[in-house]
Design goal:
Blueprint (H helix, E strand, L loop, with lengths): L8 H24 L5 H5 L4 H4 L13 H24 L2 H22 L5 H15 L9
Helix pairs in contact: 1-4, 1-5, 1-6, 4-5, 4-6, 5-6
Length: 140
């Protein structure tokens, strides 16, 4: 007999970390293009760390502040998927998995995907949420 898992722990952990990375990366993009960008220099953060070109920017020029705002919003939506998956209700887990996949991919296309790792974790967490099956309770 296998071990039944009442909640998809790997899915919500991946979505949580992926969403946080997307928000942090996007916040760095926004911070780098404000009058407070000197903070990054004081922290010894190099431009390669936060200056990434997204796939969409190959076709459309996006202002860095707009790119950062869109990335933060997409990261928050990935975290919304985390919240639904954390609840553990089967239908909400599936919806949370879809949110994680869709907004993780969009964050990669628009804002660089949270150092790429955030995108990958959101994709994995969403896929795990979609594949999760609730435990079957057998009657005694």
């Amino acid at each position: 007999m296998g071990v039944s898992v009442s909640k998809p722990a790997a899915a919500y952990t991946s979505l949580l970390v992926g969403g946080i990375l997307i928000v942090v990366h996007s916040a760095l993009i926004m911070l780098a293009n404000t009058p407070w960008s000197g903070i990054l220099e004081q922290l010894s953060v190099t431009e390669e760390f936060y200056k990434t070109r997204s796939l969409v920017e190959e076709f459309i020029e996006i202002p860095p502040l707009a790119k950062g705002i869109m990335g933060v919003l997409l990261g928050i939506l990935v975290l919304g998927g985390f919240g639904l998956v954390l609840g553990g209700a089967p239908r909400k887990v599936k919806v949370g998995g879809v949110l994680g996949v869709v907004f993780g991919v969009l964050s990669f296309l628009v804002a660089g995907g949270g150092f790429i790792v955030g995108f990958i974790l959101a994709l994995i967490g969403g896929a795990l949420g979609l594949m999760w099956k609730p435990p079957i309770h057998s009657s005694p």
